[in-house]
Every structure is written in C-alpha cells, then in structure tokens.
C-alpha cells in the first residue's frame, strides 16, 4: 500500500464502486453530498458491502447546518455511531461544537466511548472552531485519529499555510486529512509545498437525469439546484490523484 492515503467522499453505491476502481483507499460514506453530507442509511452501507470490502468511515451528521446540536439531535448521533459500529463500519466521522466555537468535549467523549475502538475522524466542524490549535490538542486528548480540514479556508490551497502548521503540530498519532478542492492540480501543489500524506476528495461529475418527461411547472429542488442533475464520483479524477500519490511515494 502507498504511504499516501486517498479517501473519497461518496453518497451512492455507484460512486463508492467507482471511487474504489479509481484507487481510493477508503470511503467517507454519507448522504446528500450536495449539502455537505448527512448521515447515510444502513441500507446504503450494506449495499456497498455486498460488492466491496473497501474500508468505510460513516459520516454522522443528522442535518445540514451548524454543528451545535440539541439534546435530541445528540442522542440520534450517539445511536447512529453505535449502529454503524455494530454494522461493521471501520470508522465514523463526527464533530460537535459549543456555542463559543470550541469542541464540545463532553459530547465528544461520549461519542468516542460509543465508537469503542473504531477509527474516528473529526470532520470539518474543526474548520468552524475559534482556535484550530486548541481544537487540535483537544482532538489528541480525545484519542481522535484524523482531522479533516481545509485549513479553515474555502479550499485546501487557500488554507495551505495553516495546513502546514497543523501538520507540524499533529505529531505521529494524529493524521491531518486535507480536503476541499482536492484534485490532481491541488495535490501537485500540496505535495510540493507540504508534508501532508492524506487527501480527501469527492471527485464528482454531474450527470444528466434519465428522465424524459420533465414537468416545467414544478421544481422539487432547492433554488439553484436541479433535480435533473445527479452527482457521481468520476473514476478518472480519482485515478489521476492516485497516480500522483503513488509517484510521490516512490
């Protein structure tokens, strides 16, 4: 296996299999990638498992929006961590914040206990934290394995300076997983300018719906989103990044 990790974020069985064919090492499995991802169904997880043994980390996020959760929402998150562990998922991707923009340590401790030895990624709630260096140290104290981050910027290239500092502070037991805007071009730059070894991409392409009849008077999508467009992982985009990482590992 390459010394560089490539994780693909997918929200369908088709995308999962294409990501694996392109060379992904593991999946971040979610639903509703178009709104940043929400918790996937167990049925989707099991469908992928019927066809693949690729490592799967399930995103646990009950809704779109911020990472300040009500007690009811937190109980759902807690239960879903347990359910995916029982289903055999290798990891979970989680994150809860306080109103002040810090990690909610009490909530995170409960989630870590529920994960019971699964690999745990702190998702981009990290990018919404007031102090990324404090949050990194808290993640270490919790025993979190990975932090998914763009360097608190809209894209990984815009956040490259913070990514360098986070990588330097992370130490050997915590992986900084660079995300947001990861493609072959971005990876070339990151390989040249950083020591990052883990990359997270969706590699999406937009497919046209197969619907022949389309009612022009009714829209089921959100403003600016068409229900006649389908996001799917582009195997070739994943393969292009995989090739760069394999070359860098030689």
TrEMBL record:
GO CC annotation terms, alphabetical: cytoplasm
Q: Tell me the superkingdom of the source.
A: Bacteria
Which compartments is it annotated to reside in?
Cytoplasm
What InterPro entries does its record include?
CutC-like (IPR005627), CutC-like_dom_sf (IPR036822)
Tagged with keyword Secreted: no
GO MF annotation, one: copper ion binding
Per the record, the similarity remark reads: Belongs to the CutC family.
For this entry, the protein name equals PF03932 family protein CutC
Tell me what organism the protein belongs to. Answer: Eisenbergiella massiliensis
